Amino acid sequence: MADSTEWLDAGDAGELATRPLQQVRIGRRQFAVSFVDGRFHAIDGRCNHVGGPLGDGTLDPAGYVTCPWHGWKFHCATGRGEPGYEGDAVPSHATKVDGGRLWIASEPSTPRTRLPHEPHPLAKIRSRGEAGGPPADAPLRVLGISTTNMNEALPRYSTSDALLATAIEHAAARGLDTRLIRLSELSFRACEGYYSKSARACTWPCSITQMDPADQMDRVYEGMVAWADVILVATPIRWGAASSLYYRMAERLNCVQNQETIANRHLMNRKVAGFVITGGQDNVQGVAGQLLGFFAELGCQFPQFPYVAHSRGWSAEDMENNVRVVQRSAALHDGARSLVDRCVETVRALLDGHLRATPPARGGRKAHRLDGDEPAREG
User: Fold this and answer.
1) How many domains does the chain have?
2) Which of 131, 247, 261, 353 has the fewest Cβ atoms within 10 angstroms?
3) pTM for the complete prediction?
4) Bond from prior residue into 111 cis (ω within 30 degrees of 0)
């Protein structure tokens, strides 16, 4: 009987044999083609996880292809997952060399199979008033995030921490639910740049959170995205910028903003942010500008006058006096309390519908091609 298999031309076999692993695209199809011990193998080039390009990954001595996006592994010949995960498999395809060309069977020899994976608890965010979320009339929730770094075994007075503590105490005294997260007490990895590989490689929750149960950034994600109505971020000024811990957190929060880009999904709805900024050196407004710009892109709203701040300025490099001012100043601590009140008034206006949180049109938003942006055609 004649062979009824449809074969796809993958290219020059000699050239393909020069690399142990590569991603081969044939029309809209993608294959991870390997060349091991003089033989070609082909598996589907899309990872079971979020579709990463398997052929752009690595091939280990045991014959497993490691996805370059998040490290999932599949055998180069059988498509089966690594030991313990064999139930996760990508399709394998027969290959042949004919006329100096590599041919790949169009139909798979084995099917794609997926093990059941429980969704991460943060995968579905339930907003206030929704099933599974807090009741609409539950007390408002105020989250404080301290980005001051210090030796926890030898704690010191932090001016931004002190004002944040005053704000949180005031919120609790008003009958609001409160939480305080100190980033210096958490162990969390820096962003590893999955977005730099592909927009779709940046997942919600962050791929690090999904893969590493010891990573404690999940506490920030849960607090900010799933729990809080009001978010208060406190930072010292370090070399004219926010603290290094703030930027480390912000890089990991990029997966929240990227959901809008990738999935048109707005994770941060009807939330209000305020800021506490202090330092021995000036540049309060520069730091505030970064904080406001970033949290605006996350989807937060702001009260009138959204931050309280204090700085001794460039010419007063005397931190002991900076500390003394904050310790003694009733006005600064009253300012922190007033910031809470403004944030609460704003979030109540949002929740009551007086301020509408309207999803934006995609035009003019990050990473969306505009009409009129098509290349000109020569007549």
Assistant:
1) 2
2) 131
3) 0.85
4) no
